[in-house]
Amino acid sequence: MFRNVAAIYLHLAGLLQRKKAGTSLTRCLHQTFAMAKRLQARRLDGIDHNPWVEFSKMASEYDVVNLGQGFPDFPPPDFAVQAFQLALSSDFMLNQYTKAFGYPPLTEILASFFGKLLGQEIDPLKNVLVTVGAYGALFTAFQALVDEGDEVIIMEPFFDCYEPMTLMAGGRPVFVTMKPSPTQDGELDSASNWQLDPTELASKFTSRTKALVFNTPNNPLGKVFSKAELELVASLCQQHDVICISDEVYQWLVYDGHQHISIASLPGMWERTLTIGSAGKSFSATGWKVGWALGPDRLMKHLRTVHQNTVYHCPTQAQVSRAHRGKLSVPQRQGLPCCGAVLRCGLPPPQGLAAIPVSIFYSMPHRKHFDHYVRFCFVKDESTLQAMDEKLQRWKDELRP
Ligand SMILES: Cc1ncc(COP(=O)(O)O)c(C=O)c1O
């Protein structure tokens, strides 16, 4: 490091000595840095834009009713906040590192809680990894399991990070599109109308397919995949020896008439599935960033290798708050349907109302077919929803002939 700084200094000094009259120091600096090697790693090519960063910036710069990014604008439940406060003020050692793969009381609770749901004997040390949010679990999974040239099947519309995470690992995303079945005049579209064509899905599996990313309930649609759909995906994964990365962060946000089923609970699927969850989503506290991956040791041991060599460890107190009093409490309908409502619009939404265009949840070639949908996140305070209502009413009046 010192040698590099010294080298830059000597180089600059040389340039300054040689500088002609009128050449500024800024220009010399520019010349120095223009000679630098390529900075950006090739794996970042084409993935430098992030819709969430851009839309959050725009929403903060303008005076808008923000139904764009999926986070609540109301406080998390009292019991969750109290648990966090207690974690901050109790044992001072909770300010220090805990076990690399998760705070032990939390991994134990996750193991026993999800063990019952998935019908598995889950070992807290071998089958559970606590991560920096579900994002952390996904990143770790892609890095651990996807190799140069591996194909990863992604169902569109998809939570946008699956594509860059595949690319950063050297993999090749292969998209399969869910399409809405036609509705009768006046009939409302519904998430369950959006379906995969089984023949098309099957055609995406090749000898190079390493993994399939599954997201139920789906962001942005809110679609809860049916048992029959899960069985189809499960049988294809088994037939082609493919790993299933199952993102289930919205599993507690299922609407009446639907039932969330974890694909890992289907026969033969535990051995090839990573089940990913998020306390941030379940407890309306997205900033706490506590997530996890659950799965068989044969997959988890590779995730642990990535984890111990990257973040190593997640914030202790945030983990403690989730493990408070030895139980994992799941709030009843207090959570966060980030994947609010997807609406079909012939026109752009009204000014002053921030939403997310559904096209960003599609791969580039397919975006144009879905550019007439927007996603509204409605896990917002009553006053925000009221403000949204006023905007929409005004817009409706303006559109009237
Ligand atoms: C489908 C899906 N998976 C994962 C995440 C990331 O969750 P976390 O905030 O726990 O990292 C999100 C966040 O919006 C999401 O919508």
Automatic annotation (TrEMBL):
Which Pfam families does this chain map to?
Answer: Aminotran_1_2
Could you say which EC number(s) this protein's record lists? 2.6.1.64, 2.6.1.7, 4.4.1.13
Q: Show the catalytic activity.
A: L-kynurenine + 2-oxoglutarate = kynurenate + L-glutamate + H2O; an S-substituted L-cysteine + H2O = a thiol + pyruvate + NH4(+); 3-phenylpyruvate + L-glutamine = 2-oxoglutaramate + L-phenylalanine
Q: Any idea which GO molecular function terms this record carries?
A: cysteine-S-conjugate beta-lyase activity; glutamine-phenylpyruvate transaminase activity; kynurenine-oxoglutarate transaminase activity; protein homodimerization activity; pyridoxal phosphate binding
Q: What would be the name of the gene that encodes this protein? A: KYAT1
What is this protein identified as?
Kynurenine--oxoglutarate transaminase 1
Q: Enumerate the InterPro entries for this protein.
A: Aminotransferase_I/II_large (IPR004839), Kynurenine-oxoglutarate_AT (IPR051326), PyrdxlP-dep_Trfase (IPR015424), PyrdxlP-dep_Trfase_major (IPR015421), PyrdxlP-dep_Trfase_small (IPR015422)
Tell me one GO biological process term: response to bacterium
User: Partners and quaternary state?
Assistant: Homodimer.
The answer, when asked if Cell cycle is one of the entry's keywords, is no
The prosthetic group or cofactor this protein requires is: pyridoxal 5'-phosphate
Q: Which UniProt keywords apply?
A: Aminotransferase, Cytoplasm, Lyase, Pyridoxal phosphate, Transferase
Q: Which family does it belong to?
A: Belongs to the class-I pyridoxal-phosphate-dependent aminotransferase family.
Its annotated pathway reads: Amino-acid degradation; L-kynurenine degradation; kynurenate from L-kynurenine: step 1/2
Q: Which GO terms describe its cellular component?
A: cytosol; mitochondrion
Cellular compartments annotated:
Cytoplasm, Cytosol
Q: Which organism is it from?
A: Ailuropoda melanoleuca (Giant panda)
The Aminotransferase class I/classII large domain is annotated at: 63-323
